[in-house]
Write a structure and sequence with these properties.
The chain has about 150 residues and is mainly β. The radius of gyration is 20 Å and the shape is elongated.
């Protein structure tokens, strides 16, 4: 315990990071490794000696990760995805008038994803086109911020 009688937040982060890592380990193929790219934790109440045992449970919900960064030297975004299978990819990512767009070429067609955000919602739509004019939707994901 720290001087004010609570467990340091770093201890909770270590517990959660270890828990998530063990969950990821259960789905990795032999020879693959993993690491934590970023960890954000919101502590909603203090850990004290009054709360009893602390338990963390990890479960893999979605087996991918993406990192978006900005290259100031070349004035462009870099978008890289990582799958639990070990595959990864680099994709074009750009801002558009009402959101963002990323995509790639595959088997003679263009795949694009458009992302629109509001204060509390992320809407991502995936489409493909053979000629770049007529688009067919194949994916839609709406994420609402937990309040």
């Amino acid at each position: 315990y720290n001087p004010i009688g609570t467990v340091h937040g770093g201890w909770a982060c270590t517990l959660l990071d270890s828990c998530m890592s063990c969950a990821v380990q259960t789905i990795l193929k032999s020879g693959f490794a993993y690491t934590t790219g970023e960890l954000k934790v919101n502590l909603v109440r203090p850990l004290t000696d009054k709360i009893g045992p602390v338990r963390a449970e990890g479960k893999v919900i979605h087996e991918t990760m993406a990192v978006l960064s900005y290259d100031a030297k070349n004035s462009k975004y870099n978008f890289r995805t990582y799958l639990a299978s070990g595959r990864s990819g680099d994709y074009d990512f750009k801002t558009i008038s009402d959101g963002y767009e990323w995509g790639f070429q595959m088997q003679g067609m263009t795949i694009r994803y458009t992302i629109k955000t509001t204060n509390n919602t992320w809407l991502e739509i995936g489409e493909f086109s053979k000629e770049g004019k007529t688009w067919m939707k194949f994916f839609e994901m709406k994420l609402d911020k937990v309040k």
